[in-house]
């Protein structure tokens, strides 16, 4: 680890929307949020990175398809492969899939509408960098808001994700977008890179969120950094 | 690879055919000009010639015609709108107003050095022609108005009116409008925190798509639309200028360039929310570094409006090199460039020494920025095209001194008969079983049903400051994370009431919006309005408009809430049939600590239910009369603004002092509507007793004003009662939150499950696609 413990970078792409929310979540969890700019190939010595929600580059071409070529992604890919914790939320998840840090892709919701609702999820894996503060099988409720959140991959990939325990979150109480096997979020093999469509950063205060269930993502990674 | 949207600007090529220059116009006084096709009246055209002392050039004619249109000049409405200023509440009540009517939007002081700007605007006609883009660019336009004041936009709301819910064309218009609002607003990262959805046959050929935006800034950040300081540069930045939104002005294009160029340009603008998001962040960074002397967004009438308004409001004149404007389509004529309503553009006036830094910030955000002119000495707006002068006008005559009409108006001949057709005569449910059926019919009717199928397509969470959003009474946004300072907003308007009595109808719209804000615990401060009416050339519609303005101005004075700005939309009619007069009123309130907000949900069993205010038999224009009988007649509920004020004071004090757990204002649908919504939201039932002296039907369905339903924790009952008693507000304990059904004792019971199915199933059944229903 370089720099002070608990420095968590949040990347702003043109069209990022939930970057300030992600920084607030880091702060409320006790970490130090650090702004990262898409044009800078420099992670400013952060210990972990959040790719926030939004419509990077207007979602033109494909969601996340242009953002993956941003200069900031070069050091990010390298350090993620080296074990640095990375969380992709919504558009950030799409960027991680486009970058091949995670398998599969996100497609248009099966009902063809944008959907914003409070979504129940089951935590299926608790040994990732971002989920250690949850209990195995714990149900949490966080906001979900997307137009292209249907997770798809070929059967073999899906089977291997299941077999390797890399399905981190599954939708409970109704699949909101047609995701295969109710998959809401997955991780890479090492468990340091996690992507999901729902928005934990919008569930960190009772005043503005449906719950504070999302805080656990950020406390998990901060604990990991302390013990690393 | 560095992704970038930037490239070298394409500007217009040299002129191809004879250019109608100022010099040419002066030498050809007899040339035929298409003023009538551009919507000008003969006397208006002659007045332009008089102002200029010659015939206008094509470009000048285009500018005057669009700036003197009803939409831009308010020529029919101005004389009535004046009252909002003249009758504005006196000191000390409106000390909150920092910027009033006339700027891009009004600005209100909310304390702690924060200022809030908010405004509602219409995009009715474009949304009927092209629902998705019409609604999307409606959001884009109002957001730029707010941005231009110096504020960060923080939320949007949408008051919507459609034709009959089951009409085939509503299935075309509504999903498109909703997708457009969502598509643009969601991508912009602004939470959508409320609004209205109303169905009525009268909007079938003329839906209303209004959009409200609210923004927050510090006092020192307020910016105005004016160009001052000789030598200051005029910078156009944002999207390239294209051929969209030109509409009628293509008449001129075809006159000027006969051989080339498309004859017809699209009338509806096309939006790019990604560009707008960049424009917002870029502009806010420019504000932070204090780089602009004046700023204006480009909306209706595009560059014509921005340049003439900036020059008119400032000191000095302006010179613009029109051929430097970056174009999307190089075949555009100068007239078309002046008229284009291409979206996502802003115009700033910048001191020469700050231009480099300004352009640098634009480059950082991949926003194209071009110096197109400068502020000059003298008082003329001069526009050049490849060195030749095509416009030379006094800008005030274009922007601020357009025609003013005193249109004739007259109370319609049918008004008496309409008011005499009293809803009291309608057959009404008597038995418990009939009341139960009427309850389910009401709550499942499209107007009274849950709107979540629509609002779930909008992001209400983004920015992380949404404290309340639909289906709450008002939306609430936290402004300061440290202190908890926040604002609440509601929009309301009941066209049925206004049709029965436009004076009272406008006041009732204000009263409801005011009540909704107070029900959240916020103190109402100021008003914005969107006045949607029929043709000003029809004396009946003009009477409705005049009455509504008078009513609203009078009520604003009494409630101490000034109108800070808004918008008028006339000509809302199909053939000779006008829509119901529909004044939509938005009220902004402030709350010192958002953690004290009052939600609508009955969240805990055992809470005591109190009905505040007086219930009388008032059924004219009611939701029940519409649902049960398709009836509209009689008089709307009586207006009592003193009572509204008292009720608001009680609701605010009770919220601040923790005396109530929930509150829901009573409006269309009456008590049963509010009771059902609060129970469903909280997932708890209620046992309710009909008070002595009231018929169960009137108790449940009357729409008497100045009322609210509140849930009081048992521990606060005495204190709450004492407060209401001391202030003289009638209260009645009508029941308790309990069980999982709504039971009207001695009458009927209905389970929450059945109620929920009725209330929440209607809109999906009408509008959800087949794929959605299969997947759900």
From TrEMBL, chain A:
Pathway: Purine metabolism; IMP biosynthesis via de novo pathway; 5-amino-1-(5-phospho-D-ribosyl)imidazole from N(2)-formyl-N(1)-(5-phospho-D-ribosyl)glycinamide: step 1/2. One of its GO terms (molecular function) is phosphoribosylformylglycinamidine synthase activity. SUPFAM superfamilies: Class I glutamine amidotransferase-like. It catalyses: N(2)-formyl-N(1)-(5-phospho-beta-D-ribosyl)glycinamide + L-glutamine + ATP + H2O = 2-formamido-N(1)-(5-O-phospho-beta-D-ribosyl)acetamidine + L-glutamate + ADP + phosphate + H(+); L-glutamine + H2O = L-glutamate + NH4(+). It is found in: Cytoplasm. PROSITE patterns: GATASE_TYPE_1 (PS51273). Signal peptide: none annotated. Keywords: ATP-binding, Cytoplasm, Glutamine amidotransferase, Hydrolase, Ligase, Nucleotide-binding, Purine biosynthesis. Its EC number is 6.3.5.3, 3.5.1.2. One of its GO terms (biological process) is 'de novo' IMP biosynthetic process. Pfam families: GATase_5. InterPro entries: Class_I_gatase-like, PRibForGlyAmidine_synth_PurQ. It comes from the Bacteria. The active site is at residues 90, 199, 201. PANTHER family: PHOSPHORIBOSYLFORMYLGLYCINAMIDINE SYNTHASE SUBUNIT PURQ. Part of the FGAM synthase complex composed of 1 PurL, 1 PurQ and 2 PurS subunits. This is Phosphoribosylformylglycinamidine synthase subunit PurQ. It comes from Streptomyces abyssalis.
TrEMBL record, chain B:
Residues 1-35 are annotated as: Disordered. Residues 230-385, 605-741 form the PurM-like C-terminal domain. The keyword ATP-binding applies. One of its GO terms (biological process) is 'de novo' IMP biosynthetic process. It is found in: Cytoplasm. InterPro entries: PRibForGlyAmidine_synth_PurL, PurL_linker, PurM-like_C_dom, PurM-like_C_sf, PurM-like_N, PurM-like_N_sf. This is Phosphoribosylformylglycinamidine synthase subunit PurL. It comes from Streptomyces abyssalis.
């Amino acid at each position: 680890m370089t720099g002070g413990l608990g420095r968590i970078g949040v990347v702003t792409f043109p069209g990022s929307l939930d970057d300030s929310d992600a920084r607030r979540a880091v702060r409320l969890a006790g970490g130090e949020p650090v702004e990262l700019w898409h044009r800078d190939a420099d992670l400013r010595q952060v210990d972990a990175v959040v790719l926030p929600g939004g419509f990077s580059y207007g979602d033109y071409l494909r969601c996340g398809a242009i953002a993956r070529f941003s200069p900031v992604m070069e050091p990010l890919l390298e350090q993620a492969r080296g074990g640095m914790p990375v969380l992709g939320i919504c558009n950030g998840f799409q960027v991680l899939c486009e970058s091949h840090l995670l398998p599969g892709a996100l497609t248009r919701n099966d009902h063809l509408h944008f959907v914003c609702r409070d979504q129940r999820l089951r935590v299926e894996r608790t040994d990732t960098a971002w989920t250690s503060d949850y209990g195995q099988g714990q149900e949490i409720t966080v906001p979900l808001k997307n137009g292209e959140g249907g997770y798809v991959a070929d059967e073999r990939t899906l089977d291997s994700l299941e077999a390797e325990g890399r399905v981190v979150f599954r939708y409970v109480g109704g699949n909101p977008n047609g995701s295969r096997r109710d998959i809401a979020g997955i991780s890479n093999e090492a468990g340091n890179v996690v992507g999901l469509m729902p928005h934990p950063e919008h569930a960190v205060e009772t005043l503005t969120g449906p719950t504070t269930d999302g805080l656990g993502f950020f406390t998990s990674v901060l604990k990991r950094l302390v013990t690393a | 690879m560095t992704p970038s949207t930037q490239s070298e600007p394409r500007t217009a090529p040299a002129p191809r055919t004879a250019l109608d220059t100022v010099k040419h116009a002066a030498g050809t006084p007899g040339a035929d000009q298409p003023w009538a096709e551009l919507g000008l009246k003969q006397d208006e055209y002659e007045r332009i010639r008089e102002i200029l002392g010659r015939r206008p050039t094509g470009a000048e004619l285009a500018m005057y015609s669009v700036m003197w249109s009803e939409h831009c000049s308010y020529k029919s409405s101005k004389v009535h709108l004046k009252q909002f200023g003249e009758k504005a509440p006196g000191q000390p009540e409106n000390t909150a107003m920092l910027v009033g009517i006339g700027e891009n939007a009004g600005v209100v002081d909310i304390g702690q050095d924060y200022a809030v700007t908010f405004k509602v605007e219409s995009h009715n006609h474009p949304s009927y022609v092209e629902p998705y883009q019409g609604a999307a660019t409606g959001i884009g336009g109002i957001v730029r108005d707010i941005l231009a004041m110096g504020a960060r936009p923080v939320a949007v709301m949408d008051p919507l009116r459609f034709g009959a819910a089951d009409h085939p064309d509503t299935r075309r218009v509504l999903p498109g409008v909703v997708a457009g609002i969502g598509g643009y607003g969601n991508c912009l990262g602004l939470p959508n925190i409320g609004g209205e959805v109303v169905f009525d046959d009268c909007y079938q050929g003329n839906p209303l798509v209004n959009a409200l935006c609210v923004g927050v800034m510090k006092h020192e950040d307020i910016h105005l639309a004016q160009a001052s300081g000789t030598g200051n540069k005029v910078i156009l930045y944002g999207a390239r200028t294209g051929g969209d939104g030109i509409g009628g002005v293509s008449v001129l294009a075809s006159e000027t360039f006969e051989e080339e160029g498309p004859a017809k340009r699209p009338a509806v603008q096309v939006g790019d929310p990604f560009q707008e998001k960049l424009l917002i962040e870029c502009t806010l960074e420019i504000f932070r570094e204090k780089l602009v002397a004046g700023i204006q967004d480009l909306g209706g009438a595009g560059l014509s409006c921005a340049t003439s308004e900036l020059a008119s409001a400032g000191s000095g004149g302006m010179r613009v090199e029109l051929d430097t404007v970056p174009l999307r389509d190089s075949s555009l004529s100068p007239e078309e460039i002046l008229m284009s309503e291409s979206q996502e553009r802003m115009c700033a006036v910048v001191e020469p020494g700050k231009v480099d830094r300004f352009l640098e910030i634009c480059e950082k955000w991949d926003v194209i920025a071009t110096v197109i002119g400068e502020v000059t000495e003298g008082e003329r707006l001069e526009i050049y095209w490849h060195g030749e002068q095509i416009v030379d006008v006094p800008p005030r005559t274009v922007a601020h001194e357009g025609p003013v009409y005193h249109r004739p108006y007259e109370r319609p001949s049918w008004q008496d008969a309409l008011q005499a057709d009293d809803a009291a005569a309608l057959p009404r449910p008597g038995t418990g079983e009939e009341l139960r059926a009427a309850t389910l019919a009401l709550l499942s009717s499209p107007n009274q049903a849950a709107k979540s199928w629509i609002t779930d397509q909008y992001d209400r969470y983004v920015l992380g400051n949404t404290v309340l959003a639909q289906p709450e009474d008002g939306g609430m946004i936290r402004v300061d994370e440290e202190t908890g300072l926040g604002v609440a907003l509601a929009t309301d308007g009941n066209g049925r009431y206004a049709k029965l009595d436009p004076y009272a109808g406008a006041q009732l719209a204000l009263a409801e919006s005011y009540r909704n804000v107070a029900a959240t615990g916020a103190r109402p401060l100021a008003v914005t309005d969107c006045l949607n009416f029929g043709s000003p050339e029809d004396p009946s519609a003009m009477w409705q408009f005049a009455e509504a303005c008078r009513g609203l101005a009078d009520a604003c004075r009494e409630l101490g809430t000034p109108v800070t700005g808004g918008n008028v939309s006339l000509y809302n009619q199909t053939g000779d049939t006008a829509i119901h007069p529909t004044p939509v009123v938005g009220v902004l309130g402030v709350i010192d600590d958002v953690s004290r907000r009052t939600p609508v949900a009955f969240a805990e069993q055992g809470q005591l239910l109190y009905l505040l205010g007086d219930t009388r038999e008032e059924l004219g224009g009611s939701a029940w009369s519409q649902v049960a009988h398709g009836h509209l007649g009689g008089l709307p509920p009586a207006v009592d603004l003193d009572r509204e004020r008292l009720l608001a004071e009680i609701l605010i004090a009770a919220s601040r002092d923790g005396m109530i757990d929930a509150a829901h204002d009573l409006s269309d649908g009456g008590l049963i509507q509010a009771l059902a919504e609060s129970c469903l939201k909280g997932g708890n039932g209620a046992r309710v007793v009909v008070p002595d002296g009231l018929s169960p039907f009137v108790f449940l369905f009357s729409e008497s004003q100045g009322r609210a339903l509140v849930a009081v924790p048992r521990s606060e009952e005495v204190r709450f009662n004492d407060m209401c008693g001391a202030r003289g507000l009638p209260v009645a304990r009508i029941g308790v939150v309990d069980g999982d059904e709504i039971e009207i004792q001695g009458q009927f019971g209905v389970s929450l499950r059945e109620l929920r199915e009725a209330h929440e199933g209607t809109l999906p059944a009408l509008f959800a696609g087949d794929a959605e229903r299969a997947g759900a």
